[in-house]
């Protein structure tokens, strides 16, 4: 992973947290938990799944 990719992940994480998501590790898997209790927790199985989810959160934040 290069610096630009890492930077993008940090910025996308901030977007997700601004929407109310918190992160934890459960059963050795990264989990996103909606602190607004509007969506079920999401456990990530792959980098691709995580990046796709981040993009969805970015799109949501962009539409607010």
Quick structural overview:
By secondary structure, the protein is of the alpha+beta class. Helices cover 50% and strands 22% of the residues.
Protein model, in words:
The chain has 64 residues and is an alpha+beta fold. Helix content is 50%, strand content 22%. The protein is built from two helices and three strands. Strand 1 and strand 2 form a beta hairpin. Helix 1 crosses helix 2. The radius of gyration is 12 Å and the shape is globular. The model has no long low-confidence stretch (mean pLDDT 90).
* Average pLDDT, all residues: 90
Structural class: alpha+beta
Order of helices and strands: HEEEH
**Gyration radius over CA:** 12 Å
Q: Hey, roughly how much beta strand do the residues contain?
A: 15-25%
Helix tally equals: 2
């Amino acid at each position: 992973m290069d610096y630009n990719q890492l930077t993008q992940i940090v910025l996308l994480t901030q977007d997700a947290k601004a929407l109310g998501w918190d992160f934890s590790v459960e059963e050795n898997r990264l989990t996103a938990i909606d602190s607004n209790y509007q969506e079920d927790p999401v456990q990530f199985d792959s980098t691709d799944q995580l990046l796709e989810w981040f993009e969805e959160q970015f799109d949501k934040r962009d539409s607010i």
